[in-house]
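Lab notebook: predicted structure, single chain.

Context: the supervisor wants predicted structures on file for every construct in the current expression panel, including those that have not yet been purified. This is the next one on the list. No modifications to the sequence; it matches the entry in the shared construct table.
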Amino acid sequence: MPPALGRERPGSGGGSGSAMAEERALAMVTCTAPVNIAVIKYWGKRDNDLILPINSSLSVTLHQDQLKTTTTAAASRDFTEDRLWLNGEEADVGHPRLQACLREVRRLARKRRGGSAEDSSPLNLSYKIHIATENNFPTAAGLASSAAGYACLVSALARLYGVEGELSEVARRGSGSACRSMLGGFVQWQRGERPDGRDSLAHQVAPETHWPELRVLVLVVSGEKKQVGSTAGMQTSVDTSPLLKHRAEAVVPERLALMMRHIRERDFEGFGQLTMRDSNQFHATCLDTFPPIFYLNDLSRHIIALAHRFNAHHGRTKVAYTFDAGPNAVIFTLADTVAEFVEVVRRSFPPAANGDQFVRGLPVGSASLPEELVAAVVPEPVPGAVRYILHTQPGPGPQLLDDPSQHLLGADGLPRGWP
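Prediction complete. Output recorded below exactly as produced.
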């Protein structure tokens, strides 16, 4: 987590020093965390409890101005039970992965207290906690909502309990890819070798400022919840797909080294081609799973074909698609290509009613398309197929919100406006 994160414990109480803090009625912290999109995919665990992957992976952290989870965590001696709210609805706080993160942060807090006489967070570890979390994008639709969610949860809990240091291992216990959302820019999650998972951590390959021209277009074709969740899907793949085993052992290690080189050298041709190949192989392992898993739909395949026609017309890789466990396309491109490709998408999938809301996020300039490009690239239009395009870029890791008005919980520890 960035060193700039500060602590905040609003509340009031008498006394002095840590005794005063101990008497505070309510401790509350709010953090935001980003979505990440893998360009070398994680699919398959070798340990389901510790969430240890069968291969290393590499992702790009997306900017929180466009996609983020916000989480407020509060602890109070007055709370009678742990409670959780997701997007305004009360949810099961007993979820095993959430509990694993909570246990791990409390364990680290106890360890930290045992090791020092001066305690910066005298918050009583037996206090019950309330957690409220919100996404500004569709949950469980293949936009890495669990990664942002658990990274945010762990950031807020760590802040609340005064825990510092390596937190990607804790976030991994919630959702594997969440460990990559603990850092900004370009992030590798190392497979690790140890059975206890202590070396299965995320580290930054390059910061978000490393490749200023890189842009990301999320083509949202569906906000629906996927039919086969990632957890169940990858377990079936591990059990039944020989291609997945080959991928993890023989393909990924070489691709990872190559991808890191392309990123270091800001080589879009290499980066783009490898991103598309790895996405295709991930979906091939889903097809090789028995029974097969289909995350892509007809529209996803339309977008893949469109990207290849666009690149062929230009004689080089100008856009690169990748798909996670869902039909929404993530397109990597450079800033100078955004306007033209957005216009190609608009012509290929003319927006239904939301013409003005079709492009969201960072501004996109207008582009007029040469006739020969339209003839070569734009197929028979499919109106209304793409719901909207979100234009974003690489961004930083989790952030602390200092403004108390941004807390999702009120002074009573309940969501604002909760009945």
